[in-house]
Amino acid sequence: MLDPRPYLEKDFAYHADMLDALLNEKTKVLYSEEDGVLLRIGGKGPYAISASTAEAMTKMAKLIEEERYMAVVRPFRFIPELFAAKGKAAEMMPCYQAAYHSKEPVPEYEVPGIEIKPLTEENLRFVCDNYEDDEDYIKSRIEYGMLGAFDEEGKCAGFVGFHGEGSMGLLKVLPEYRRRGIGIALEAKNLNIRLKSGRIPFGHVVVGNEKSMGLQRKIGMEFSKNIVTWVFSDME
């Protein structure tokens, strides 16, 4: 098996998630040859696949043992080979991958009347009510490290964090607080936290979300030219 880094480093933005995953000692390299790389992020998390040929996609798909799985797959044109080996997925989410290639921190933004600080378990219900009603998942994200933006009365105006596989996300600014620069302030501080920890800041933006792409570009992220696709098998 080859070192996966030379293959992945040929297109940094396209493979930033996989390069970051390799910084996690629990990540498993299941396949790494000249025609592609297959990782199991964090050992038990989603799969990440990059194939240069249809044949490579087929070989790697057969290494996914679970019937129910999540994977970040590239390129899109070889997904039929994945489905042929594993059965058609219940859902797909095509995204552009944003990545930060520099080692230098980005400028941070001050918002008058807003303090950015870590969230605690006291904020769990608020995040669930305003983002995703999955308490176990949100609790794990708060424990990992989420930031909140609080006004002068102590009310939470928005938040940001990291998804389980390492991507920057969970960004939400409440409608009454928008157009004040809170979103970019949260994103910039979150990026610098990731960078300081020695990891690669990256995120996924659903194809068509131009507003989010503009925000990521503002803080210095670059986008992959080609899409990566989240594939969700029937997880029920």
Helices, strands, pairings?
Layout: H1 5-9, H2 12-21, E1 28-33, E2 36-40, E3 47-51, H3 54-61, E4 70-74, H4 79-86, E5 91-99, E6 115-118, H5 124-130, H6 135-145, E7 147-150, E8 156-162, E9 168-173, H7 182-196, E10 202-206, H8 210-218, E11 222-223, E12 228-232
Parallel strand pairs: 3-4
Antiparallel strand pairs: 1-2, 2-3, 4-12, 5-10, 5-11, 5-12, 6-7, 7-8, 8-9
Helix pairs in contact: 3-4, 5-6
Q: What does this protein look like?
A:
This protein has helices spanning 5-9, 12-21, 54-61, 79-86, 124-130, 135-145, 182-196, 210-218; strands spanning 28-33, 36-40, 47-51, 70-74, 91-99, 115-118, 147-150, 156-162, 168-173, 202-206, 222-223, 228-232. It is α+β, with helices and mostly antiparallel strands and 236 residues long. The chain has two domains: 5-97 and 227-232; 115-199, Aminopeptidase (3-Layer(aba) Sandwich). Strands 1, 2, 3, 4, 5, 10, 11 and 12 form an eight-stranded mixed sheet that branches. Strands 6-7-8-9 form a four-stranded antiparallel sheet, sandwiched between helices. Strand 7 (147-150) and strand 8 form a beta hairpin. The longest helix is centred in the last third of the chain and has 15 residues, at 182-196. The chain starts with a helix and ends with a strand.
